[in-house]
Structures are given as C-alpha cells and as structure tokens.
Amino acid sequence: MASGDRRREKGYLHGYSATERARLRKQALVLEPMVHDHLPFHRRRRCVEIGSGVGAQTEILLRHFPGLQVTCVERSKVQLAEARKFLRTVPWARGRYALCEADATSLPFERESFDSGFLCWILEHVADPARILSELRRVLLAGAPVVVTEVLNATFFIDPYSPRTLQYWMAFNDHQLELGGDPFVGAKLGNLLQQVGFHDVQTVVKTFHLDNRSPGERADFLAFWTELLLSGAPALLSAGKVKPDVVDGMKEELDRVARDANSVFFYSFIQARARA
C-alpha cells in the first residue's frame, strides 16, 4: 500500500470500533428522511455505492427500491466484514447486494457497468474527491443518475453559547483537513461534479433548524449530535488536538444545551444530484 493510500486509510477520523459501527447504523436511520427523500432510482437496476461502510445506507436503498441491486465499494476490511454480517440479517437484502473491497480511485469494473450511483458521507474523508467522481462517471451508463450527500461543517451552531464545544469543533475540522479530508466539501459538490463531466448538476441545502417549535425532535437530535462529536474524541486526544478538559467541557455544555428550554440547534448539509 502506497504512503498516500495509508494516509487515506487513516483519514476516517471516527475510527472503526464496534461502538462506531453501531453509531453509523443509527446515524443512517436518523438522517434517512432527508438523505433518501425522493431519490431518482426508480426503474434503476444496478447501483454502485461508493464508500458503503457498514452497509447502513445499503439497507435503506434496498428497502426503498425493491428492484435495485447494489454493488458496495469499500476499502476497509473491517467495515466490509461488518456490512456482510449486518446485511445477512436483512431479509429484503438477500441476493441483492455485492461487497467489493476496492480503492474508489481505481474501480475494478468495466465502463458503463451501472445505471445509478450513490455516495453518502464519503468525500469528506478522501484526499482527491474529483478523482473518485471521475472514476464513478467512467463506470456509469450515459444519463445514469448519481446522488452525492456531503457535510458542510461551517454551518454548525448551537445556543446557549458553548465555547468548549466550538473549540472542539474547530479541532475536529482541522484534524480532518490534516488527514487529507475536507469537512467543507459539500459546498464544492457542484464544481466537482461539473469538473469531471457530469451534467444536469443540482444542489440542495438541507437544514436542521431545531428550536422550541419541535422540542422532542431537538432533544433527540442533540443526543445524536453529541454521539457524533464524541466519536472523534479518541482520535483527537491521541493526536494531541484537544485536551481532556476540552472534551469534558464540551460534554457539560451539550448537556446544558439539551436541558435548556430555549436551546437552538442548526446544521446544514448538501445533497447534489447529477447525470453521467
């Protein structure tokens, strides 16, 4: 494995623990209504999912589109093993997926092998998203729809003001950049897709703005977001990017925000849709 490949392998800040694998499945279900809203995969038969991880998004794709076969591309052996274990428990997945250990910058497929493509929360972790999208375009049929969902971490806001949480968040994003990822790649999807030859490129900003109008949803999402933030703590502590007092202070602040009757949570991500 080349040195650049080793860096990309380490670029997943959250790690590969059993706790993280369970969190990814929970995250997929929490975000399902927004990520999988009216996806253009009806009458599609062969979808390639890049960065399929533990199979959490795969399960949802197969559930939403009964005629779809999904080829899952993932470079982590640990994630592939977890996906295999998980998808075997899903009745509607039986016989409808294939797991492929591969580098997304060099896919082991012939040109025009698939009639649709799906990427979710993967480009934020890679060093060269344009190369991955270009390789994706190569294996898609002309006119095939592709959906790419990505983070835009500059949009995160909570109230009451939480300085330790913001300090941690800055370290979180800085470390991801140092690892070769991009926590702001969502804003760049339009340019990236157009650059490598996709057409009919559209982007939609999807926003969580949770306040007193939806207290139950706000409480649930704050709990989910706390888990997401803390999933990066071991890597940040190990790398010396934050000190334990920052993590402890963030936990206290997030608990205070969750108990505040007038708290506010805001975050936006980007979903791009295009055709090959």
Principal-axes geometry comes out as: globular
Percentage beta strand: 15-25%
Radius of gyration: 19 Å
CATH architecture: 3-Layer(aba) Sandwich
Question: Ends: how far apart?
Answer: 30 Å
Largest sheet: 8 strands, mixed
CATH superfamily: Vaccinia Virus protein VP39
Count structural domains.
Answer: 1
Helix content estimate:
40-55%
DSSP helical segment count: 10
Unreliable residue stretches: 1-10
CATH fold call: Rossmann fold
**Which H/E pattern describes the elements?**
HHEHEHEEHEEHHEHHHE
The structure class reads alpha/beta
Written overview of the protein:
With 276 residues, this protein is of the alpha/beta class. It has a single domain (3-275), classed as Vaccinia Virus protein VP39 (Rossmann fold, 3-Layer(aba) Sandwich), CATH 3.40.50.150. It has helices at 3-10, 18-35, 56-64, 77-87, 129-138, 163-178, 189-195, 215-231, 233-238, 244-259; strands at 46-50, 69-74, 97-101, 116-120, 145-151, 157-159, 199-210, 264-275. Strands 1, 2, 3, 4, 5, 6, 7 and 8 form an eight-stranded mixed sheet that branches. α5 links the parallel β4 and β5 (145-151). The longest helix is centred in the first third of the chain and has 18 residues, at 18-35. It is globular, with a radius of gyration of 19 Å. Residues 1-10 have low confidence and may be disordered.
List keywords for this structure.
276 residues; alpha/beta; Rossmann fold; eight-stranded mixed β-sheet; 43% helix; globular
